[in-house]
Amino acid sequence: MSLSREKNKFESRFTEDVTEIAAVTGASGIGAGRGGGAKLWNASIPLIAWKNVLSNETKIEELRLEWQVNDEEWERSKDILKKNTIVRLLVRRSEHSMMLVKVLEAAYKDDELEMILQDSLKPVFYMDKVLGEFELDKSVKTFEKKVLWAGEEGNLYFDWDADESGMKAALETAYALFENQEEWNMKIRRYAAEELTELANDWLQDNEEAEIDEITNKMFMDLMELNSISVYSDGDFNFFFFDGDMFWGHSIIVSGNIHGDLTSAEIAG
Question: According to the model, what pLDDT value does residue 207 have?
Fold first, then answer.
């Protein structure tokens, strides 16, 4: 697709009218993505509240502020807006997002929006009767806490959900894992070793400073070190392990479901 068609397709999602707003940026800051074959990056930052400067009407709602940039522009625009800040902008509207036309002020003063911003910065906790207190990481909308798993310390995560039943269902996944953690721990490590030891030995052959000639399944299991556990409402889970330098610092991720089998073991990062 040509650059002009990419731009036209993107801009067609928004109204032609340009509106001046003041807005509160969210906790995650600027990010960008680009689909296969695309020439332009779709950059964005979340907004948690905004005010029409002309009408002085304020709305507290979560939406994304979006814009398109090429490679050079993306490097320049990574820092044009900061997270957790009040800004003044020219935008074009759509139902669930806005297109950035121009940054008028990257640090704007507005008493009403300042109150909203300060309220958003307060910590949010979730108290579970079994696992204790979790704190919300607002940048990724995930609750987290330190846990002890089979003698190792790591983080336990579950996603924030407006419907509390979804969060309770995710915690049911955690309960099932922790009630039989020694059994699950061995099962997960053994599965990872069966799936990845051969690959680890391939990497070993490329390591000229290696002090061993071969990684056995048992060595693989022993070198894995827990990083974190993520649980989901449908019974799925992901275990993230440090790799003990078998893959030169990549993570080992093992996925499965408490109602079924382990489904994958892979390296990432």
Answer: 73
- Average model confidence (pLDDT) for the chain? 95
Edge-to-edge strands, sheet with 125-128:
125-128, 132-137, 142-149, 152-159, 225-231, 236-242, 251-257, 262-268
- Among 53, 52, 77, smallest CA distance to 66 is for 77
Residue 208: pLDDT band (50, 70, 90) is: low
Could you tell me if 238 and 264 are in contact, meaning their C-beta atoms sit under 8 angstroms apart?
no
Structure token pair of residue 129: 């009767």
d(CA 47, CA 24): 6
Residue range 100-126: mean pLDDT, rounded: 98
For the four alpha carbons of 205, 211, 215 and 216, in that order, the dihedral sign comes to: positive
The pLDDT tens digits for 157-177 are 999 999 999 999 999 999 999
Burial label for 128, CB within 10 Å (0-12, 13-18, 19+), is middle
Cα end-to-end distance, the chain, whole Å: 30
Q: Check residue 174 and give its pLDDT.
A: 98
Burial of 100 (0-12, 13-18, 19+ CB in 10 A): buried
Nearest one of 22, 206, 203 to 116, comparing CA atoms: 22
Tokens linked to 128: 């579970």
